Amino acid sequence: MFVLACLAPGTSPAAQLCTGNAPAGDSRSVHGVVRDISGARVPGAEISAAWTDWRVSGNSLIDQVRTASVVANAVGEYRFCALPRKSSITFRATLGGSTVAVVTVPPGRNTGAVTLPLEPAPTLPARARPAFVQGVVRDSGGAPIPSARISVGEGPAGLSDDAGRFELAVPQAGAVSLVVRRLGYRPRTLQVAAGPSPPVLDLILEPIAAVLRDVTVAARPGAFEMTSGFSERRRRGTGAFFDRAALDRMRPQTLTDVLRSVGGIQVHTVMTRWGHQTTPSSTRASGGAIGCSLDYYVNGHEYTPTSLGIDRDMAPDQIEAIEVYKASEIPPQFLGRRSRCGVVVIWTRYRAHELPR
Q: How confident is the prediction for the chain on average, in pLDDT?
């Protein structure tokens, strides 16, 4: 704490500085000294004086706060030579930007000393130094073990790198319980010291034979197999069949590129009002018809191509499988009114919302 003392005129060297400039009847001089709690003088403190000045303006009484300030000299003394006698004056000592002492002098008084206890500056906790554990995880042959899991109790955890190294931050320095695990190795728990500069641990894990539970993988036919009967008809051996894998190998640009590979199918191009159109037909139709147009089924339903042609209607990347039958091979479910020349059965690829439930 500091002591701010206001002294009577003429009791200090600073008081002599007001000689020849004596305050008028309504004024007073105040001189003082700033000391610390041990009594030592404190130079360089800034001393400010504040008081309220009253004046009449018309029918109103107006108050106005006025101030003055000085700096304590090399021996801690300060002076104010002309301050109002009829007002209470508050003196405030400031050092290093902080107020260290305050004294209020009542009207008419020139002397006074007040000791003010100062609140001690808050003590900030020392910044904790970071603490961590570090080391290398190896097997019994000295080879590093990557991706080992290192944990501290229920708290922080991490993995070793490709060289088996790890560094794990912990909340505070001191003894911690370290657990090291890796599939195929016996877990290890040990007490280690964590700190700002911990030793590099060399952790050896013993291999063990990991016995895993049996895993049963069950699969059911896909939606296409469940609804089309494609595989069953292919097993009968009549007709030409192209599944998705076969189509991927062929990489056809159009559907008729696939049909060209089937014996008894010819593909010809005609000019229509919509441009060139490729049309497949059978050369082995029932009744000896030559160039007879094929019938189409899409996802089990008879289908009539649009005027743009079947190649515009069905892109190869939209097709899951294709079946092609001569007139004499057509299964009963694909016998339609136009099937005397042969049938092309197309199965499209299902979207997620089209899968049967």
A: 77
